[in-house]
C-alpha cells in the first residue's frame, strides 16, 4: 500500500499514481487507486465517474460506507480499480476533525476491504498535509514522494519528512519512505540535473533510477480518460513510467 504524497501542488502526484498503477496492472498485478483528492484528478484520468452523487471516498471516510460499495473497475483495464473522489471530499478535511479515530478512517476501511485480491493499493494524496494526507500515511506501508525537477522543489520537503516521522512515531510505526521519483525532468536545462543530483545526494537509494521526463503526452492523456500507457504507449513518458513501475515491483520482491 503506497501513499503518493507531497503537499506541494502540481508536482506529478496524480500523474505518477495513475501511470504507475496502470503500468503495474498491465503486468498482471491487481491494483486499486484510491483518489484522496477532492479535485478528483485521478478519477478523471481513470475514466471513473466522480460527479453528481456517485458514492465516493468521502462516504467511506465520514459515513462508514464499505470500500467495496465505491470501487469501480477502470474501463478497458481489467486489473485496475479506482475508488473515486467527488468534490464532497473537500468537506472531509473539516468533518473528520470531530470523528472518532479520525486519522485511521482510511486504514480501517481498507482493512475491512478484501474483495478483489489486490497486489497494490496506490493512494493519490491532495496537495496539503491535512487529515486526508494523514489518513493516507496512517493506512500505507510506504510513502512515495514525487519531486519536480525545479528550483523550489525541495522547499517544504522538510515539513513533509517531519510529518512522516511524526506519523511513524505515533500512528504507523512501520511506515517507510520507500521511494522518491523525479518528475518533469527537462534534460535541456542544467537546473533539472542540478536538482536531480541534489536529491540523489541527499536521499541516495530511495530515489528511483528512472527519471520521468517532461512529456506533453503525459498531460494530454487524462483528457481522454486514459493513462499514458494506453493513450501513447511508445511515448517517452509511458516508457519512463513503465520502467519506474518495474523498479518498484523489483524492489518489492527483493525487500
Ligand atoms: N512528466 C510530465 N510532463 C509533462 N506534464 C506533466 C508531467 N507530469 C505531470 N504533468 C502535468 O503537470 C500538471 C500537474 O501534474 P499532476 O496533476 O500529476 O500533479 P499533482 O501533484 O497531482 O497536482 P495536485 O497537487 O494539484 O494534485 C498536470 O497538468 C499534468 O498533466
Ligand atoms: Mg493531484
Automatic annotation (TrEMBL):
Gene3D superfamilies for this protein: P-loop containing nucleotide triphosphate hydrolases
Domain AAA: start-end pairs: 1-176
InterPro entries assigned to the protein according to its UniProt record, in alphabetical order: AAA_dom (IPR025669), DNA_Partitioning_ATPase (IPR050678), P-loop_NTPase (IPR027417)
Role according to the record: May play a role in septum formation.
Family recorded in the similarity comment: Belongs to the ParA family.
Name of the protein in question: ParA family protein
Top-level taxonomy: Bacteria, Bacillati, Actinomycetota, Actinomycetes, Streptosporangiales
